[in-house]
Amino acid sequence: MSDALLGAAAELFAAKGPRGTSVREIAAAAGVNHGLVHQYFGSKEQLLRASLERLAHNVSGRLDEGAEGAEDAALEHDVDLHWRVLARALLDGEDPATLQREYPAMDRLVAQAGHRGLDETSARRLATHVVTVELGWRLFHGFISAALGLEDDDVLRRDLLAAAWETPPSR
Length: 171
Known about the structure:
- The protein has 171 residues and is mostly helical.
- 72% of the residues lie in helices and 0% in strands.
- The protein has helices spanning 2-16, 23-30, 35-41, 44-64, 73-91, 104-114, 120-148, 154-166.
């Protein structure tokens, strides 16, 4: 039951944002009574947070299992969905400090950056570069490709990410 609600909520939040999505719409998409949203999560805001945390943990779990980006369709879907839900929530004015309690994907990026021999601050800065490129590409690749006359393909995304990882953070 809660999985169906979390899945439906994530898809609707990604498409319409939290403000544009009603509890009744989420319940209908999940095939349940809207009262169950309140029973399981308390409020739409708590459902939003639970959706983001579930997506973040799904991504982290798939990465722990050895999934590889575009080669794993479920991983790619959850990564994309997580970024879109997060972006829509922020654009709707949600407080970024309250959207999630844990950030397993961010922790993973900082650890990967730290394996390059960087101190904690530099590792966090490098992870920031990577997240910025990834988030920007996922949200605006269609616009970027059209505006610059580029093919919208995975090669460009991989090039951008490689460049972000290779650029040492400023001190």
